[in-house]
TrEMBL record:
GO molecular-function term, one example from the UniProt record: isomerase activity
Keyword Isomerase on entry: yes
Keyword Isomerase: yes
Any Pfam family matching the protein: SnoaL_2
Key words, A-Z: Isomerase
Coiled-coil boundaries: none
Domain SnoaL-like: 13-112
Protein name: Ketosteroid isomerase
């Protein structure tokens, strides 16, 4: 398998495991020291450090009932990113955001995740 095929498969697996709530699957894709940084000032913002904390972050996000629509898997020379359209509704509050989840890889695993959002104020209002 080529490097880009490995990157693409990691992206597909991450999205599939997230949408299925397969937390052990997500854990299997991460280095032990993985981290995930999200912008904003809300319950999911900041940096989760360590594979278990990253899995807990994924669980918390999913617990809000998001639809994680995968638009594209993007690859660079060494890393990959997911282009997503996330939507959800909680009472009268609606989430509708586009984002890029950039994954830096090490030894064919995800070592660092940084998420870039189109609507940080909307995220802050939704994830309270």
């Amino acid at each position: 398998m080529t490097r880009h095929e490995v990157q693409h498969q990691l992206g597909k697996k991450f999205h599939a495991y997230l949408t299925a709530g397969d937390w052990e699957g997500i854990r299997s894709l991460l280095t032990d020291d993985a981290s995930w940084t999200l912008p904003g000032d809300n319950t999911i913002s900041g940096t989760a450090v360590g594979a278990e904390a990253v899995v807990e972050r994924a669980k918390k996000i999913a617990s809000y009932g998001l639809d994680f629509e995968l638009l594209h898997i993007l690859v660079s020379r060494e890393n990959m990113a997911l282009s997503l359209h996330n939507t959800a509704r909680r009472g009268d509050v609606r989430l509708d955001e586009h984002l890029s989840t950039v994954c830096r890889l090490r030894d064919n695993k995800i070592a660092n995740i940084e998420t870039y959002l189109s609507d940080v104020p909307g995220m802050n209002a939704f994830f309270v």
